[in-house]
Amino acid sequence: MKKRWICLFVENEIGVLDRISGLFSGKSYNLDSLTVGVTEDSTISRMTISLTSDDRTFEQIKKQLGRSVEVIKVVDYTDTPIHMKEILFVKVNHCSDADITELFRISKVFGVAIIDYDSTTVLLECTQTENRNDDLIALLKRKFANRIEIVRGGSVAVEAVSMSER
Amino acid sequence: MRQITGAELFVKALKEEAVDTLFAYPGGQAIDLFNALYGEKEIDVILPRHEQGLIHAADGYARSTGKVGVCLVTSGPGATNLVTGIATANYDSVPLVCFTGQVATHLIGNDTFQEVDFVGITRSICKYAVMVRKREDLAETIKKAFYIARTGKPGVVVVDLPKDVQRAYGSDFYPEEIMVRGYKPKLSVHMGQINKAMDILNHAVKPVFLIGGGVNIAHANKEMTQLAELTGVPVITTIMGKGAIPTTNSLYVGNIGIHGSYAANSAISNCDVLFSIGTRFNDRITGKIEEFAVNAKIIHIDVDAASISRNIDVDIPIVADAKKAICALLEKAKPLHISEWTDEINRWKKEYPIDMGKIGLTPQMIIRSINELFKDAIVTTDVGQNQLWTTQFLDIDENNQMLTSGGLGTMGYGFPAAIGAKLGNPHKDVIVISGDGGMQMNIQEMATAVVYELPVIICILNNGYLGNVRQWQEMFYDRRYSSTCMRYRRSCETGCNQPAHCCPEYTPDFIALAESYGAKGIRVTKAEDIKLALNSAKQNTKTPTIIEFIIDREVNVMPIVPPGNSLNDMILESEEGRE
Predict the structure, then answer these.
(1) CATH no. for B3-171
(2) Residues of chain B whose C-beta is under 8 A from some C-beta in A?
């Protein structure tokens, strides 16, 4: 089992997201995250899909995606240098003053922005890799158990310009 | 440019696509389309009696003519009744375009009367599904639908047509060509891979061809026969590949699979090169996958890249159309010196033929009689024992064809498919081999066959059971005949596990049923009456004929590979044995 990344160019049409996500659910393929947005060409949408699978299943997934009429191009990013980021909001409720201080400290170390807060609630915005976001969430869960609200955007990825980037 | 309605453009598009037969059932959201078809001379509009029968008929028409089958039904239930037929056709790579009426675009999502999200329902069981949301997209979408349905690995395309799009005026332009950027059927053959494949084949000691439905779909039967004869390599087929070379050809070994022949399964298990074309190595043909063709180098040609290296690992994958690939192979092919191997296979064939014995009225006798009496015929099967016996005993050559639901295994397929086949091939004899169960699943199409004067010959092998499941219950479930007896009545004892002389009468009476539809009915209970009945049906050129063959109630399909076993681990005969 290995973490994989696929960049998918699809027709910007109603129902395409259903087609792609339905392929994963219908064939019992595991899907970690899927994001979609329109590209510089308004008739084309671009998806970033992350998943965990063995080699054989992954080959099959790429072929199945490729044979869908709505799919224009499948690009495997798994072993390609890419920039990859995920937006994450974490709201921490019922904070004491000490909690807020602690959150400011964490935000500095993790490179997280505090974009809003009041006397008891702090809202963090984090745009990091999926793994880095996982680490932050794990930390916040430990420290502020049952007081946090999380919303994640799923990853977007783009091929690196300089080949050393990863 | 002339302004016409969407419905008028629909009719124009059908004509441009050379559609001569339309399988259609009207309804509220399709009424404008039917209005545009009224009085149309170039298109034969067929009204079956149920949408499921309708789509199987379109399927039979498409499989037997090589043309695209076209369906038109209304929204809601009209559309949902197509679902089984869509999956059936798509599974077997049959080109169909299904037009479905839909409520007007401004009503979609309101739970409107007879509204269903049909594109959503069918997305996972067809090649492409699309709703036309704007009148100006209509022509291009229909063009695209036909193009996608018939090219590459053929399949089903669903086109959902909202009522307002049908009624709206717009251009009468219909494009001659279309480009779909996400859809590029493979047109070339990789010669490097072909050379590698031929190199492996030429060095083989025990090679076999394993041929699937892809060769029939690509109409490459002639080329395949040439390839087999030129190389001298024995040919094994899947059920869908049967007829890839004439079954009477000495190089033909038989079907592979859980009801395949001993010789075919043994050849697969012992071969050193398995050269497969147009099969997806479905579980029904491989048996226990870990022990499938373990000693063989495997070459796999398929038009669908996703079929390759999915179920089994392949040494030489080649993504190509079967016909193009076989033509390329022919250029490199040369005779192989493998007489020891072919002798061995022929010995297996001789020692372990599939044979049901000579006592009683057996399906083998019936199908062999069909072989003798019908030399230019299309035979459709239903699903279950009738289908398996047909695939075991039917002879297929250049003039004969077999249509069967191999992938989905849809009961109720055989009879309506025959209606479509007869419509597409009026000069051929069309014969249905069905069971008493499957025949009742679309029996309402008797009316269709009668009113369109289609003299199809319907052979019902009546054993009063859902025989294939009953066979499994007998062999693997301790004779617990759960819900498989078709003669069961409320008054029967519970827990019955065998037929008796006092079993209740069968219902319906198929002969009276045939007559009530204005068709002919013949009941056959003795082997000596088989040919008489078939000949009499052949003479009846005005109406369909039902021949009900009363066969032994517990006759089994043999040999069988029990579930979980490898192919060379077959049960060859029923416990009671043969005389």
Answers:
(1) 3.40.50.970
(2) 119-120, 123-124, 127-129, 131, 133, 148, 180-183, 304-306, 309-310
Q: Buried (b) or exposed (e) across A66-80, using 16+ Cβ within 10 A?
A: bbbbbbbebeebeee
Please provide residue B351's backbone torsions phi and psi, each rounded to the nearest 5 degrees. Answer: -75, -30
* CATH architecture of the domain with residue range B191-351: 3-Layer(aba) Sandwich (3.40)
Percent of chain A at pLDDT above 90? 96
| Best residue of A41, A62, A63, A65 to probe chain B, by most B CBs closer than 10 Å | A63
The one-letter code for the residue type at B501 is H
A–B interface: beta-carbon pairs under 8 A: 40
Judge: A69–B182 Cβ closer than 8 Å, yes or no: yes
Which H or E run includes B102? Answer: strand B96-102
Dist CA B550 CA B529 (whole Å): 11
Nearest to B304 by CA among B68, B93, B63, B89: B93
What domains can be seen in chain A, in order of their start residue? 2-80 (3.30.70.260), 83-159 (3.30.70.1150)
Tell me where in chain B the CATH 3.40.50.1220 domain(s) lie.
Answer: 191-351
Nearest to B120 among A18, A23, A60 (CB): A18
Residues of B in contact with A65 (CB under 8 A): none
Distance from CA of A48 to the nearest CA of B (A): 17
Confidence at B2, pLDDT banded by 50, 70, 90: confident
Considering only CB atoms, A70 lies closest to which of B124, B182, B305, namely B182
- pLDDT-derived band at B577, boundaries 50, 70, 90: very low
Give per-residue pLDDT as tens, A105-133.
999 999 999 999 999 999 999 999 999 99
What's the confidence (pLDDT) of residue B57? 98
Interatomic CA distance for residues B173 and A117, integer angstroms: 61
Tell me the CATH number for domain B363-550. Answer: 3.40.50.970
Question: What residue ranges of chain B are covered by domains with CATH 3.40.50.970?
Answer: 3-171, 363-550
Say if the Cβ atoms of B310 and A26 lie within 8 Å.
no
Comparing C-alpha atoms, which of A67, A73, A98 is closest to residue A6? A73
pLDDT higher than threshold 60 for residue B579:
no
Smallest Cα distance from A53 to chain B, Å: 14
- With beta carbons under 8 A apart, name residues in chain A contacting B127: 69
pLDDT band at B1, cuts 50/70/90?
Answer: confident
Interface predicted TM-score (ipTM) of this complex, two decimals: 0.91
Mean pLDDT of B331-338: 96
